[in-house]
Specification:
By secondary structure, the chain is of the alpha/beta class. It has six helices and seven strands, in the order βαββαβαββαβαα. The chain is globular. Residues 212-225 have low confidence and may be disordered.
């Protein structure tokens, strides 16, 4: 059986539009630099993993960070759920989709996740994140309503997505949990798990170590979790 397609859904890393919850302590340009490093690490892992196709569903235009071998498709209009459905709709066959904010992703993990998706009796896979979102979702067939009424960037995104898969009668398997990064605390934890990566080196270069254990500022708005891949 052929390998599924691998999709990365991402936003062009630009100051003021990428990883805005890293500011402060980062400047908008620094946050965009971390987003670009994470995206480059993710694309490099996908490039080395077995796949029938490699697709970047992009909000924006490609840069020098895009390696060869990827098809680039424009993200659809609308909310993230609509754009996720459009990304899967661009593939005629099984596909595994990941975001741009798990630079610790490896080709081996991608290959194992693809094998799980293509296993007997499996229609879908879902990779949870500790914040309540998910870092990956895979579908064996065309399910344009798979993301209907699933709240994105919420603390219960993964839970509701799982219920949606069940409501559609899709037999699912869970993938290993993987932490994505939205805050500077997340970034330090993720970087510690992928030393030597572009992302870890970019974070080290900012010399923000004093923020590793930073507590929320008094009066700060609580941060929500969940999948926010296209938000960069």
């Amino acid at each position: 059986m052929s390998d599924p397609a691998l999709i990365v859904i991402a936003k062009q890393p630009l100051p003021g539009r990428s990883k805005t919850r890293l500011t402060p302590p980062c400047t908008p340009a620094q946050a965009a630099g971390l987003a670009e490093a994470a995206l480059a690490d993710t694309l490099a892992a996908v490039a080395r993993a077995p796949a029938s196709r490699r697709v970047l569903a992009l909000d924006g235009v490609p840069g020098e960070w895009l390696p060869p071998g990827f098809e680039v498709v424009k993200q659809g209009e609308g909310g993230l759920g609509v754009r996720l459905a459009a990304a899967f709709g661009s593939i005629c066959g099984p596909a595994l989709l990941v975001g741009m904010d798990t630079p610790q992703l490896t080709p081996d993990l991608l290959a194992a996740s693809a094998r799980t998706l293509m296993g007997d009796g499996v229609d879908a896979v879902l990779g949870p994140a500790p914040d309540g979102g998910y870092w990956a979702i895979g579908l064996r067939g065309s399910h344009p309503r798979a993301f209907d009424r699933v709240p994105m960037s919420a603390a219960n995104t993964c839970e509701v997505q799982l219920r949606r898969l069940r409501a559609l009668g899709l037999r699912h398997r869970m993938l290993p949990a993987l932490r994505d990064f939205d805050t500077i605390e997340d970034a330090h934890v993720v970087a510690s798990s992928c030393r030597g990566s572009r992302f870890a080196e970019a974070l080290d270069a900012l010399d923000l170590g004093r923020w590793k254990q930073a507590s929320p500022r008094k009066g700060a708005r609580p941060l929500t979790g969940g999948a926010a891949w296209a938000g960069g």
